[in-house]
Amino acid sequence: MSGKHGHKPFEGHMHDYMAHIQAVEEDLEYYRAKRFEPRIIYLLRRGVVTFYDLLQVRATLKRKDHFFKIGKPQGTNIEARVRYLEEWLDEYVKGIALVSARAVEGMDMVTEDNRKERGDYDDFFKIKKKEHHGALEERMINLERDLTDYHELLEVFVQALIKRGWASRTDLEQRWKQLHEERPWAGGIIVAKAWSDSEFKQALLATGREALREMGVHQGKVGKLVVVENTDRIHNVIVCTLCSCYPYDILGDTPWWYKHESYRSNIVQNPRECIKDMFNLEIPREKELRVWDSTSDVRYFVLPERPAGTENLSEAELAKLVTVDSLIGAGYALEPEQLREREAAHLEAETPRVRPD
Amino acid sequence: MSPTSSKYKIGDAVMVADENPSGNPRTPRYIRGKRGVIGAVHGVLENIRDHRGVHNPLYTVKFDVSELSNCHEPDSIWVDVHEEWLREARRDS
Fold first, then answer.
1. Predicted TM-score of the model (pTM)
2. Is residue A244 flagged as an active site residue?
3. Which of A238, A240, A352, B62 could form a disulfide with A245 if both were Cys (CB 3.0 to 4.6 A apart)?
4. A contact test, residue of B80, B81, B82 with most A CBs within 10 A
């Protein structure tokens, strides 16, 4: 994808609008085709919600009764519009979380049902994703239109759940409020502690989630956690070739490319070349490269190497050197000089959103 | 149904089944029919948010990348595989 679009993934700071727009496009299609529509289809098949419920709700719904309220961009310049699209995408993703399994009373739906329904095991069920072309302005207009359409279906779907009595508006509103209470990203804190405290590091590598409990970090519940350590001899990389398994309950959202087909297929075919092409990261010949492919019961992240010249830094300073890419093995932790350069250029650190699970 | 003790141990040479219609579908196609070595034994894991019931014991199997593709780098792919997909394999055969 780097070659195709001419952008290195995750170099997407706000100076590069196209990279931001591309990330929104990829994520939007992912969440629509992999997280939301398969869920509707699952419930349609079972008569929980029917096409006719959706049509009736749509015909009678008044704007004042909308569950979701979408604001307006804070300005007309490109940066404000890009931010607006990103925030809108985030509201859409939260809305999908709102109608997840627990929203529908009496429906015993687990992640595995969604994977079957969306064709993880059978191409027959795959929902086609849109492709995006064109210049920045055209792509932004297309995204605004897609988000309008996609959010409308989500709105109608939520209303249909309420109308059919599968969920109460009060419960949904309470859950919606919870979904906006984001937790701070713990990736940097965990790694900085492991770099500074060898006893904690050993516990983290040996027991995963248990070690996080002692540290007071939210440890989540989604499968066993395995942390793999990068050293001067071994470079580890994480992937989920079947879908997008990741310890998101601890580390929040994945970068968009982690869910992208090209990363998921290339990384297990020729990992060294894939990392070089996609992330401009050349792993030294003397290092063994290990790729970890998750099947959902185990979730992995990488403990990156501690950068040189960081002996005198505090844990809080060390935490700033940890990037999302470095926890997947798609990058190294920053050297202090690199962090200074980023700060001097006013490049904000883009930490993932961590939602309540 | 699910054995509670794991059949294989770290270092055992294993072969992934080509087909296993009743097996866990989360076994990627690119390792089917391929040889690897047990790299980690996880046993039976509970993951109720993810799936119903209890799966067979889980292993992480190490594959040389050259076993899986025409890439000849000395790198390895470590894949989580449930027990019903694995067969004993003789080493170096």
1. 0.90
2. yes
3. A240
4. B80
